[in-house]
Amino acid sequence: MNSIAPNRIANEARPYVRGRLAPRKMLLLVAILAIALSVAGAYAVLSAPWLGVGFSPSTQPEGLRVESLQENSPNLDRLVEGMVLVAFEAKDGHAIALTGNLIVEDPDLMSFADLRGFYSRQEAIDTMLKSGPVTAVTDAGQRIELGVASAPFRQLSYFGMHSFYGVVSLLIALSIWIYQPGQRSTQLFALSGASVFVNTVTIGAYGGRELAIDGQLFQVLASLTHGATLMVCASLAGLFWVYPRSLGRSNVPLVLLGSALLLWIVDIAQIGGSARATIYLPVFVGYLAGLGFAAMQWRASSNRPLDRGAIKWCILAIFAGSFLLMGLHCGGGVSSRLLHDGCPRCCLLTRLLFSHLTTLQHCRG
Fold first, then answer.
1. Whose C-alpha in 41, 75, 304, 346 is 20 to 30 A from the C-alpha of 224?
2. 90 forms bridges with which residues in the sheet?
3. Above 80 in pLDDT, residue 246?
């Protein structure tokens, strides 16, 4: 391994360049832009039709079970808890069958063929509910005209939690980059923060929906989530190639980022069967590569206690939080139950936010 001077972030500060925005002003502008994008996401959430009903999947019969009715639901006197809805009918007689996967938080694990049908049904239900009136057909053959209202502000709780985490992560990452914008380590960390922001805001906009949102919007948001997920993985893996010392002259981070971009294009083209092949397998391989780079950094820092301390805390902060997210997101039904029952999502996001704060502390140190 070639001997390259340490590039610890704290020791690489460059003087302020005249003509460039002052760091505080730049951070303020980024914060305003992030908040503006979050407001746009909130508008999308509030624009979705609202029934005031909590649904759960039903398999026998196939449909959606009414689990709860909110106190200000327009269907409080029309639906009963435990009732199973099997179809929606428009006034022209057009009917759409209801299935349990309509309310899945993130449909990533469906095949691309099933995913196209999923987006089509989301589009159809969203259009039907906005056009009204809509009749719900129960498993017992009852026909009930549904009330549809504008979503209340409390419908933003899921989105707000994700958006807050994304904004804070973005500002943490950029608070390092704006002072040393020419360093590869700060550039990669900033990219990871920006990607986390895109990831959380987009999944927050569709993951907390009551039933359906515009299908085309859903597809765009899900695609952005995929691209951001790949970029988070590539940027953090690349960070361990250059921090706390460069492992070589090869531009490995650029190769990782280019691969992430190529995989995103493949995912958009829906090549490979499902996101398992285009997103989750590459992300898993990318994290393994990051762990390999981290192990190399650990070995190279055997005689440098400060470097070893930095790499130790970065490994704990980044990979512990990231693997927790991957495990809960990819683990299927078991992880979903843990997520919604024993391990609330707010606890997960708090843990990941701590990861960014810990990384910030040790990158500065």
1. 346
2. 134
3. yes
- Calculate the CA dihedral of residues 192, 195, 200, 206 and round it to 10 degrees: -160
pLDDT of the residue at 325: 53
Task: Determine how many CB atoms are found less than 10 A away from the CB of residue 305.
Answer: 9
155 secondary structure, DSSP code: G
Residue 213 identity (one-letter amino acid) = I
**Cα 30 from Cα 167, distance rounded (Å):** 9
Concatenate the DSSP letters of all residues of 313-330 into one string: HHIIIIIHHHHHHHHHHH
Q: Are 207 and 71 in contact (CB under 8 A)?
A: no
Q: How many helices (H) and strands (E) does the chain have?
A: 12, 8
Closest residue by Cα to residue 122 from 218, 49, 252: 218
DSSP string, 177-196: HTTSTT-HHHHHHHHHHHHH
User: Could you give the angle at which helices 345-364 and 157-177 cross, rounded to 10 degrees?
Assistant: 10
How many CB atoms are located within 10 Å of the residue 208 CB? 19
Cβ–Cβ < 8 Å for 143, 136: yes
Helix (H), strand (E) at residue 54: strand 53-59
Q: Would you put residue 94 in left (φ > 0), alpha (ψ -120 to 50) or beta? A: beta
pLDDT confidence of residue 328? 46
3-state secondary structure of 77: coil
Which residues lie below 8 Å from residue 11, measured CB to CB, with a gap of 6+?
none
Residue 323 confidence (pLDDT): 57
Instruction: Answer for the pair 34, 170: CB distance below 8 angstroms, yes or no.
Output: yes
How many Å separate Cα 74 from the centre of its chain?
Answer: 31
- The amino acid sitting at 140 is A
Mean residue pLDDT of the chain comes to 84
The per-residue pLDDT for range 148-173, each reduced to its tens digit, is: 999 999 999 999 999 998 998 899 88
Reduce the DSSP state of residue 209 to 3 states and report it: coil
- Orientation angle between helical segments 320-330 and 345-364, nearest 10 degrees: 160
The DSSP code for 154 is G
Residue 324 confidence class, pLDDT cut points 50, 70, 90: low
